[in-house]
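Translate sequence into structure tokens.
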Amino acid sequence: MSVTRVVVVEDAARMPDLLGSGDGVLREVERAFPAVDILVRGNRITLSGDQDDVDAATSAVEELRDVLGAGVPLTPEVARESVRMLRATGASSPGTPATAVAERPAGVLSRSILSTRGRTIRPKTQGQAAYVHAMDSHTITFGIGPAGTGKTYLAMAQAVAALQSKRVNRIVLTRPAVEAGERLGFLPGSLSEKIDPYLRPLYDALHDMVDPESIPRLMEAGTIEVAPLAYMRGRTLNDAFVILDEAQNTTREQMKMFLTRLGFGTTMVVTGDVTQVDLPGGTKSGLRAASEILTGVEDIAFCHLGAEDVVRHRLVSDIITAYARNDEKDQARTKRPTGQKRRFDKEEQR
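Result follows.
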């Protein structure tokens, strides 16, 4: 049955923001609901087509209006994620109460983690929102997922927010010094210059959230510490926010050593991607081992992010999905039916 719905935006001045730059947000809605005709005139958005499709598209437009009203700038990426979340939670009809679904996009995407240097850092997907919630409510959180899902970036934002609110006295950032398969050889310079290339991703995230001019002072005072994992041995870390990055490149023993550094008043976040292990062949990843050993332990959370949580270029998500699909095919090829082969000697054959 063909129906028509109208969404009215009370503040007509917000229409350009709702439609997006170059109507990019509107185009994303049209791409998600190709069977729905969408017409914009003044502050009214008219949607026509099959009832089920129109109801779903109307719900998406109304949700984007609420997301914008919550202070979140709309982009095609935000629109795409809002539609995906609505479909995942089953909110397909306009006017569906928030309690009827798991969580509405407006509630997820408007959460503020950290406001710094003129911008606000927020989770951009439902998976990221669950990850942030886990860091807020658990002493140790494992963030496991592919590149671009914001594992390290969101952990860093949580750490800076905790330091600013004086919930912790310092931030400790660490990662194993393992090459990504290139065999770089001996690096010149002092010890800090040798390890700097391995820790550069942590510095990059830190510079996004803290005034770069204040970082040397904070590091000199010990308020922010960036060090290779080997420097954690023998220490007890109290009243700190500790992040272990690239944890897939730890051994089982290194992971155990790191986790047992936990002191009072400390929050730990461990991030990594189990599909990008750079350890020598035959060495089991400490991150993979920890997920098998510690699952179910109280106050330890495991958050698994996927391709749908990637917030880099859209192609990154497609690349991750394509590689995962190829890995599944390779595993299927290597699996051969096994059967028992019985060997007979010459006498038995006679």
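Note: The chain has two domains: 2-108, 114-312.
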